[in-house]
Amino acid sequence: MVIAIVVAVIVLIVVTMYNSLIRKRNQVDNAFASIDVMLKQRFDLIPNLVASVRQYAKHEADTFSAITEMRNKSYTSLTENEKADFDKNFSGIRSKFFAVAENYPELKASENFLQLQRALNETEEQLAAARRTFNACVTDYNNAVQSFPTNVLAGMMGFTCKTVLAIPEAERATPDVKNLFNS
Known about the structure:
This protein has helices at 2-54, 61-71, 80-102, 105-109, 111-146, 150-157, 169-172, 177-182.
């Protein structure tokens, strides 16, 4: 009788730990799906932004070609790594894009451009929030995968650590505000 109770308790503990790992992994997947939705929204805004700016800035072809090149693939055909690369590359090109727009007062006053810029800024804020949620879920999941006793079960069941999202090195640099005002 005692052996049966001990076995039942051990089975209950293993099932509870396994379900906890599954729940945490699903939270990570759900958080990435939220990021994916925001990336898709941003991805779809790009052609509208390019079209509205292109008419004002025909000679800024290099910035537009970089944006268009990033947008050439169908979003659904991108892998998770390609989506993450797109996200990293877009941040740098986005600043150049809006710098180009600053040179054209008529464009800055265009209601269509302002609306697109607001939509992109809102999407960027939502992306930042989704990234924070994702990183919190990944950290919680990784803690479960690496902490005893769940790490034993995680190793046996093939649960591996996930990678948190990090900003590119270029974005970590402190902006040179003096030069921003001089340009």
